[in-house]
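Ticket #4471: structure export looks truncated?
Reporter: QA, pipeline team
Priority: medium

Steps to reproduce: submit the single chain below to the structure queue and open the exported record.
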Amino acid sequence: MTNNFANSSYMIAAGETLSGTAEQARKVAVACGRIWLTIEGQIDDHWLAAGESVVIPANRSVVIETENQASLIELSAVSSIISLKNQVPVHTGLLQKLANKLGQALA
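Actual output as written to the record:
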């Protein structure tokens, strides 16, 4: 299914895929279940479980697939660039730890 992520939520059946392009940046939050999400132009994909979220940028192709159970995702608008800067990517903590260790190793 291809859409523009205009709805506020989507229930995706187990093993199904939702794909499309958002006209505006949107925050995708998993209300229940577990999803795999990939964003055009980003190197890393995201595995998100209930309670986790990620911001998808405007005008990029996005593919969301459920794992082995139905999943409910909720989408909300991101109002400005400032809001995007305040979003914490899912893997920021891990990347920061790796950067610190690399810095210590090279020191």
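Status: closed, not a bug. The export was complete when the record was re-opened. Leaving a note from the reviewer for reference: Confidence is low (pLDDT under 50) at residues 82-88.
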